[in-house]
Structure formats: structure tokens, C-alpha cells
């Protein structure tokens, strides 16, 4: 599987150019980082919500 990714990356570099490919890879990594940041924020909001519900009960 990793060899397939390397081959696809090499084809992209050949067709588009190095800097365009580099920007594409960095953009993809940025999207993944933003996705995990969104998940972390959602988890923190859910924990705060349930913590407040449990605290009001007692």
C-alpha cells in the first residue's frame, strides 16, 4: 500500500509540478488537522454539557 501512495505522488509531481503537489499535500494535512481540532472541540463541548447536567442533579 505505501508503494502505491509513492507511485501516485510521483505521478502527481510529474504532471502538476513539485510545488503544486507540495501545496496539495500540505492542504490535505491541514484539513486533517482541522478535522481533529473540530472533533476535540465537539468532545469538550459534550463533556461540559454532560458535566453540567450531572452537577445540577446533585
Q: Report the mean per-residue pLDDT as an integer.
A: 88
Count every helix, treating DSSP H or I runs of 4 or more residues as helices: 2
Sketch the topology as an H/E string, one letter per element: HH
- End-to-end gap: 53 Å
Largest sheet: none
Key attributes of the depicted protein:
mainly alpha, transmembrane helix, single chain, membrane, transmembrane
Question: Can you offer a commentary on this structure?
Answer:
By secondary structure, this protein is an all-alpha fold. Helices cover 95% and strands 0% of the residues. It has helices spanning 2-16, 18-57. The relative contact order is 0.07. The model has no long low-confidence stretch (mean pLDDT 88). Keywords: Membrane, Transmembrane, Transmembrane helix. The chain crosses the membrane at residues 25-51.
Topology, element by element:
Layout: H1 2-16, H2 18-57
Helix pairs in contact: 1-2
Sum this structure up briefly.
Keywords: Membrane, Transmembrane, Transmembrane helix. With 58 residues, the protein is mostly helical.
